[in-house]
Q: What sequence folds into this?
């Protein structure tokens, strides 16, 4: 731990390119030679080395990210990474995803308390295809894993990525999702993502965000890009 140089009661001068952790729970990564902030009792300490702030959730809520626009998984990932900075553990259970995504590398290369588990095939799921039972089996395994985490209170933030898409493709049932919500520990934050979330699910959620596509560059022929879409 290092002390900071104090210029006055109103501001601190930061000269180190290290994560700066404030008593208020803020982390700054500095790029310039000096940055000024209002006077707070700051110390220079890496939250990665000391397990974050270890702030338990007093109340866990249910968040739903749905809609036809880009950003549902991205928002859920961002929440998990933010929570990790405060010492909250996260498990991300991915339905219908068996391909390699860059977030797998991000989690692997970090020292954050985040795990990603995939329960999907590398092949795209088509309800009319002959392999639909294989996709249902994988979704059932993901659902069982989610139930295990809920029953054991296995993390602070549980993200069920694309679970609503799995419902849309009839791989799981609405009752499956509602059961997870009803049985989750009171202190666990539950995040559901995926297109086509039915309105019957809305009463069980505390926050619902609909990502609406207004403009997307894929209409210009721009393909998915590594590090951005996957």
A:
């Amino acid at each position: 731990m290092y002390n900071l140089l104090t210029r006055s009661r109103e501001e601190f001068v930061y000269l180190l390119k290290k994560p700066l952790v404030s008593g208020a729970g803020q982390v700054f990564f500095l790029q310039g030679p000096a940055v000024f902030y209002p006077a707070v009792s700051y110390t220079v300490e890496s939250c990665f080395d000391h397990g974050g702030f270890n702030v338990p959730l007093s109340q866990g809520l249910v968040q739903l990210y749905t809609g036809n626009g880009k950003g549902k998984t991205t928002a859920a990932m961002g929440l998990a990474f933010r929570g990790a900075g405060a010492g909250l553990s996260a498990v991300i259970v991915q339905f219908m995803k068996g391909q390699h995504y860059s977030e797998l590398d991000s989690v692997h290369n970090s020292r954050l308390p985040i795990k990603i588990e995939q329960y999907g095939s590398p092949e795209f799921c088509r309800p009319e295809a002959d392999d639909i039972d294989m996709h249902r089996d994988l979704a059932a395994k993901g659902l069982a894993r989610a139930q295990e985490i809920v029953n054991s209170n296995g993390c602070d933030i549980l993200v069920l990525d694309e679970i609503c898409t799995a419902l849309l493709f009839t791989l799981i049932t609405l009752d499956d999702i509602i059961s997870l919500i009803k049985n989750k520990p009171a202190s666990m934050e539950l995040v559901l993502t995926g297109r086509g979330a039915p309105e019957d699910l809305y009463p069980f959620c505390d926050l619902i965000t609909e990502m609406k596509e207004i403009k997307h560059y894929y209409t210009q022929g721009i393909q998915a890009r590594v590090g951005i879409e996957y």
Remarks:
- Residues 10 and 39 are 5 Å apart (CA to CA).
- The helical segments are 72-85, 102-109, 132-152, 163-168, 174-183.
